[in-house]
Specification:
Blueprint: E1 12-16, H1 21-36, H2 40-53, E2 57-59, E3 62-63, E4 66-69, E5 76-86, E6 96-105, H3 110-124, H4 126-133, H5 138-152
Parallel strand pairs: 1-5, 3-6, 4-6
Antiparallel strand pairs: 2-3, 5-6
């Protein structure tokens, strides 16, 4: 499972404007609805239900909100760099500025876990995160995500 299996260039948001976790998830749900063909409300509800189980703000300014929808046919990812960091109830209590949204079919099972692990591995790389924080261009962000993937594949 590679990052390019999850996102395409138009799945990257370079300057997401949000002032709260809820607003960020609403905006991402709206964008994910366009990408997946699913209902925006269904996506938002799945993301909020997951947040109720425990925050997806994993620390170091990173959040990986995720959920499963029965009607999806494959895994989908959406990456956003926030214009300004926001409170995301992260485990380290630091604000979040990098979000990787992951949506999976109900039947994804191990593939969903592999995708989460892959995204987590990428975003634990401090150098990769510094580069992602250093640009506000969607094409450059996509290239960094994919390039970082290629360099770590070895």
């Amino acid at each position: 499972m590679e990052i390019e299996d999850l996102i395409k260039p138009d799945h990257v948001v370079a300057q997401l404007r949000a002032t709260s976790k809820k607003q960020a998830l609403q905006d991402l749900a709206k964008r994910a609805a366009r990408i997946t063909g699913e209902q925006e409300r269904a996506i938002f509800d799945v993301l909020m239900e997951r947040e109720k189980l425990g925050t997806t703000g994993v620390g170091n300014g990173i959040a990986i909100p995720h959920g499963k929808l029965g009607s999806l046919d494959r895994l989908y990812g959406l990456f956003a760099r926030l214009e300004r960091p926001i409170d995301f109830d992260a485990i380290d209590e630091r604000p979040v500025d990098l979000i990787f949204l992951l949506l999976a079919p109900e039947s994804a099972g191990a593939d969903h876990l592999k995708a989460l692990a892959r995204v987590s591995r990428l975003l634990r790389d401090k150098s990769a995160c510094e580069k992602l924080r250093g640009t506000d261009d969607a094409e450059a962000l996509y290239a960094l995500l994919i390039d970082t993937t290629a360099t770590r594949a070895a």
